[in-house]
Amino acid sequence: MATIREIAELAGVSRGTVDRVLNHRGSVNAATAALVNDIAKKLDYKPNRAGIALAAQRKMVRIGVVLFDTGNPFFDEVWNSVLSKEEELNSYNCSVLKKKTGFSAQEQLQAIAELEAEGIDGLVISPFNDTAVANKIDQLQSRQIPVITTNTDIRNSSRLAFIGSDFYRCGQTAAGLMNLMTSGEVRAGIVTGSSQVLCHTDRIAGFCDRISACYPRIRIIAEIENSDDDFESYDKTRALLSAHPDINALYFTAAGVYGGCRAVLSLNRTDIHILAYDKIPATKELMEQHIISAVICQQPAIQGSKPIQLLFDYLTAGEAPDREFYYTAVDIRILENL
């Protein structure tokens, strides 16, 4: 295994310089830093885990977390995983500073500003897909405050990594499921959370592209947004079905499923096939009542804990994520495997 001494000898610099480069401590000439990193990569340098623990105990690390708070029980599971990881890392002088926001760029920017004022060293965020949020992530990265996105990603930003589902693939999977569970002419409605949340739009894109390419008997009639809110979902789903009584399938891409399904029942539309996401109490109940046919799950515990662990390793040991995308499994659940 390569050592800091070997890297220093090959680079022609001191061990202290190598340590500063690999652990992101202090200022080092850009060319020297590039040389050290290149040698470390070629030697497959791995930091000593015992040394990491000792270094972490000497250094206070503050990691900020910004998650959506829309009443979606899925995020409760993500939040509980964040709390568990926080408890685990407390003994290493790592504190996790947490904020919740709605689907709003302004709310997220305010939450980030508050965390900056508390002196965070890194940020985990489920980002609202807005240019201002992407620019803020770039600004943090330029100040050596690394950012990792979780649950939903954001395009055109310099975040380190993303942890969550391959949402486009999930949308394709939903299209395949709808094809399997229906017959004849299908007229589908799409109920989504927000057009400004990338995971929602990617789920729709994968669904629509797959249907267009492979399943001509399925036709998409209309799409509505419910802000992940059950009350709004009830009103808008009921209006959708009233305006388009020929709809015989619904694809829920986000939360608000319970409210939307209550609207279906209020119109006595038991002929409608319904697909949704996440095994939460509401969707489990609706599957047991034979209202929802299937759900696609996305491992919320991983989305809460993994980004914090990656940031902790990066901040304490200079151990960068080994890839850009950490995709969770596409987990299909029907009544029989709940």
UniProtKB/TrEMBL annotation:
GO molecular function, one term: DNA-binding transcription factor activity
PROSITE patterns found in the cross-reference section: HTH_LACI_1 (PS00356), HTH_LACI_2 (PS50932)
Keyword Iron: no
Alphabetized InterPro entries for the sequence: HTH_LacI, Lambda_DNA-bd_dom_sf, Peripla_BP_I, SBP_2_dom
Sequence ranges assigned to domain HTH lacI-type in this UniProt record: 2-56
Keywords, ordered alphabetically: DNA-binding, Transcription, Transcription regulation
Domain of life of the native organism: Bacteria
Record's protein name: LacI family DNA-binding transcriptional regulator
Lineage per the UniProt record: Bacteria, Bacillati, Bacillota, Clostridia, Lachnospirales
